[in-house]
Every structure is written in C-alpha cells, then in structure tokens.
Design goal:
The chain has 386 residues and is an alpha+beta fold. It folds into 2 domains: 8-18 and 26-108, 2-Layer Sandwich (Phosphorylase Kinase, domain 1); 114-385, Aminoglycoside 3'-phosphotransferase, Chain: A, domain 2. The protein contains 14 helices and 12 strands. The protein has a 5-stranded antiparallel beta sheet with strand order 1-2-3-7-6, sandwiched between helices. A 3-stranded antiparallel beta sheet has the order 8-10-11. A hairpin with a 3-residue loop joins strand 4 and strand 5. Helix 11 (313-340) runs antiparallel to helix 13. The chain binds 5-S-methyl-5-thio-alpha-D-ribofuranose and magnesium ion. Magnesium ion is lined by residues 34, 36, 227, 232, 248. Belongs to the methylthioribose kinase family. This is S-methyl-5-thioribose kinase. One of its GO terms (biological process) is methionine biosynthetic process. InterPro entries: Aminoglycoside_PTrfase (IPR002575), Kinase-like_dom_sf (IPR011009), Methylthioribose_kinase (IPR009212).
Length: 386
C-alpha cells in the first residue's frame, strides 16, 4: 500500500495491521510539537502499555503544504537510530519498527519523561547527568561513524547512504545564511531591529558564517544527529535512576562533529539567558563545560580502539581542538538564527520582556562566531556570559 497520512482515528488500526497492537482499543492522542512531523501517543486503557507513532508529512508541519518537504526524511531518522543503537542504545528511544511506505516510526512511549526545554522553561535545572550524557552521546556516535571508528570503505558507504540534501539545505539556509540576508523566513522582535540590521551588514560576521556554512557542507567527519537542541532531548527518572533520551534525528547526515555540540551549546546558553532574565538560580551556565568535558573524555577513552593507527595521539589533540573551535562557531550561528531567523525558541519568546535577554544572546552569538579561535576553554565562554 502507498503512502497515506495517518489521522488519530487511523492509528489503532494501523498498529494492528503492522502487528504492534492487539484487539483492545487504545487511547490515541496527537502530541505533535516539533516543527516538522506528526506524533501520536497510544496508551492501553489500563495504562500497562504505550507506544508512540511518528509520521513525516510531505511538508513542514508548522508551515503547512506551502512549504513542501519530502517525507523521505523519516528514512534518515530510521537510519540514524540504527547507527546509534549500535553504540549508545541507552540514549535513544527503543524503535519497534519503521514503515518506509508510510514514513512512520513506531517507538517507545516516553510520556513518563519530559522534554528538557519544557523543564528548563518551567524553572527546572539540567541536573548532574544530562549534559554529561549528551557529551557522551555525541562522542559515541561520532567516534563510531568517523574514520577512527570505521574502516575507510565502510565509511564511504555510510556517507553515501546518509546523504540528505533537502534537510541539509534547510540548515544551510535557515541557520547558516538567511539570518544574514533579507529573507521572508526571518522575523524578530521590534526591539531587536537595530541588531538585525547590523548583523546583515557586518562583513566580518558574514565571512565567518560563510566559513561555518562551507564546513557544514563539506566536513564529512561523522554521522550527526543534526538537530540536537533541548527540544530533542527527554529526561526523567526510571526506577530511581536518571534517564536521558535523544530523539528526532531526522536531520542526520555525515557532517562536522562540532555541529551537534554547537547546537546543544547554543540551546544551553539561551536557557542560561532566560534563567538570568528571570533571576532563576540554576546550573545553566555550566552545561557547555560539562558536555564538552564528557565529549572529550569519551572520545579519548575510545581513541585506543581506532581502526587506523596512522592517526596518532598528537593528531587527536589537534583534532579535538578543532572540534572545540568549530562547535563554538556553530553555537553562535544557532543562537543568532533562533532570535532573528526562522524557528524561534520559547525560552526567549515566552519571557515577559524578551528583548534584553535576546539582545545579550545575539551579541554572545556574534562573539562565538567571530572570536571562536580566541576562546580556548569553557571558562573563556563563561566569562563572556558574565
Ligand atoms: C523548517 S524547519 C526549521 C527548524 O526546525 C527543525 O527543528 C530544525 O531546527 C530546523 O532548522
Ligand atoms: Mg526536530
């Protein structure tokens, strides 16, 4: 059967057809929240079982049919989950099946967990484990799918299989060029008019963003999540133990490792700007350091297992230094686009007055882009935050 868009009333039958559900009638509700897809939660009436169904639509969900987008992005997501399952299965939801005809994933019900951004927006903190696990996640996925973790020919096949031009183009446009141009996707609070104009007419900033854009287009270092923001992470506790789950890797492709770290850092820094604006005490400003330390430690732990020992220890030091610098640049670009480009963050938009925190974040974003080579440690970034 060909592709059909699933509605709430179709879900129980669909799951039965595919052998995921028995004859009992579950409760089904649509909980679509991200920019791109539809998600349904399916729960047994006695609450003993649950599943989630995620389907890619032939357009960007928040824009509607006026912004067509191939649902094949779900193939990229399914492929990414397969790769992560090999190296970090504890950090992603369990995948029960992928239906490539309908671009639908059937996966673990995570409704007992909460989206990290929601927790932060409600005044919560990251806690001691979240950023450590995110740093480990990026290291485990990127090491395993780099030329250090995979034989050369296998890697070339992964690069070919993971090519995702449509989704990469979104990032090349909305993150890595449009905010620095006049574009209909861009919008911002009127209190930021002067900065939006200044960012569009800043040759140094533009050249540095061009550098990052080119790196994103050409730097095939490892398989990425591709959209690692705090809305793509769920956290909580199960049987007394902390749980962190990374989801939504539909933007996955083989790209520069710093893009994943940078996106996460941008979102932690924006959450810090929100906390600061509200006078909330928290651990937001520590997360870049915690995730970087965990990433670096895990990458170094895996290094002795590399498949190509021509890459020596001195090269590793250089490589990690480059990842650090590139991550800062991508973090800056993500901050800027989330404020004067497309797809703004509720961290800022829901503030009583978003302008002061947005201005600080924008200026921080610019610093991270243009001065990334001078910032050599997390303490340098923390100093910028102060
Ligand atoms: C058209 S999509 C806009 C944004 O939503 C996704 O979550 C990505 O961040 C993308 O840039
Ligand atoms: Mg997403």
């Amino acid at each position: 059967m060909g592709y059909r868009i699933l509605e709430t009333e179709d879900i129980a039958g669909y799951l039965r057809e595919r052998g995921h559900w028995g004859t009992d009638e579950p409760e089904v509700r649509e909980v679509s929240d991200g920019n791109m897809n539809r998600v349904f939660l399916v729960t047994a009436t006695d609450r003993t079982r649950g599943l989630a169904v995620k389907q890619a639509l032939p357009w960007v969900r928040v824009a509607g049919p006026s912004w067509p987008m191939s649902p094949e992005r779900a193939d990229a997501e399914a492929r990414a989950y397969e790769q992560v399952a090999k190296v970090a299965p504890d950090k992603i939801p369990a995948i029960h099946g992928y239906d490539s005809d309908n671009y639908a994933l059937v996966m673990e019900d995570m409704s007992d967990l909460e989206v990290l951004r929601t927790i932060l927006n409600e005044g919560g903190t990251y806690g001691p484990d979240t950023s450590r696990r995110i740093g480990e996640f990026v290291a485990q996925l990127s090491f395993a799918t780099s030329d250090f973790g995979m034989p050369s020919a296998e890697r070339k096949a992964l690069i070919a299989a993971s090519v995702s031009p449509e989704l990469c183009k979104i990032t090349e446009d909305v993150v890595l060029s449009e905010p620095y141009l006049e574009h209909e996707h861009n919008h911002w609070h009127p209190g930021l008019d002067d900065l939006a104009v200044a960012f569009r007419s800043d040759p140094r900033l533009r050249t540095e963003v061009a550098e990052l854009r080119h790196l994103f287009m050409t730097g095939a270092q490892a398989l990425l999540h591709g959209d690692l923001h705090t809305g793509s992470i769920m956290v909580g506790t199960r049987e007394g133990a902390p749980v962190v789950r990374v989801f939504d890797p539909e933007f996955s492709f083989v790209g520069p490792i710093g893009f994943d770290l940078g996106l996460y850092w941008a979102n932690t820094l924006v959450s810090a700007a929100r906390a600061d604006a509200l006078g909330v005490e928290g651990d937001h400003g520590d997360q870049l350091r915690l995730s970087w330390d965990a990433f670096r430690a895990e990458f170094r732990r895996l290094w002795p297992t590399r498949v190509d020992t021509f890459f020596d220890d001195a090269f590793l030091d250089r490589f990690l230094d480059r990842v650090w610098t590139e991550s800062l640049g991508f973090a800056g670009a993500e901050i800027v686009r989330r404020i004067i480009g497309f797809a703004h963050l509720t961290d800022l938009t829901t503030l009583p007055d978003p302008v002061p925190a947005s201005r600080r974040a924008l200026l921080l974003g610019r610093e991270l882009i243009v001065r990334r080579a001078e910032l050599t440690s997390p303490e340098d970034v923390e100093a910028l935050l102060r």
